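User: Please fill in residues for this 149-position structure.
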């Protein structure tokens, strides 16, 4: 059933490719690369070092790497592409909370399909962490934009 997750990842990538771009190519590249590196680093520490969760089964799997490569950049791009940079802080907070809710639901789904497993991690940990992850993506994008200027 985990193949369904890959189909969803491909759909995310197709959507990312065809949506109108609100951020520049350099911003897209830098933020997607950052999201991939940030996600991989986090997963390596929490999966390999602390054994809190993982993909498919313990140890390295190529299909897990492919899934991470397909997921982190596309979702980060979609989140940042529509991030309401010129809106009030309350609107930005709601946007981050909605993406966090989506992420928790999607993570729950990945666990149900056995793409992802927990071995010490709890879904509510993710619910608490996702807003910070999205905030870090926003901070990184602002940093990239400052470097471009």
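Assistant: Residues filled in for all 149 positions:
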């Amino acid at each position: 059933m985990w193949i369904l997750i890959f189909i969803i990842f491909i759909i995310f990538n197709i959507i990312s490719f065809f949506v109108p771009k609100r951020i520049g190519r350099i911003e897209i590249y830098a933020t997607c690369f950052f999201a991939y590196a940030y996600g991989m680093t986090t997963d390596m520490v929490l999966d390999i070092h602390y054994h809190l969760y993982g993909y498919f089964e313990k140890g390295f799997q190529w299909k897990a790497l492919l899934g991470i490569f397909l997921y982190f950049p596309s979702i980060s791009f979609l989140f940042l592409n529509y991030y309401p940079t010129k809106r009030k802080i309350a609107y930005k907070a709601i946007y981050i909370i909605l993406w966090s809710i989506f992420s928790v639901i999607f993570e729950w789904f990945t666990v149900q399909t056995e793409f992802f497993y927990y071995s010490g991690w709890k879904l509510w940990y993710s619910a608490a962490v996702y807003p910070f992850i999205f905030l870090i993506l926003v901070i990184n994008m602002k940093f990239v934009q400052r470097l471009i200027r």
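For context: Helices lie at 3-18, 25-49, 62-81, 89-112, 123-148.
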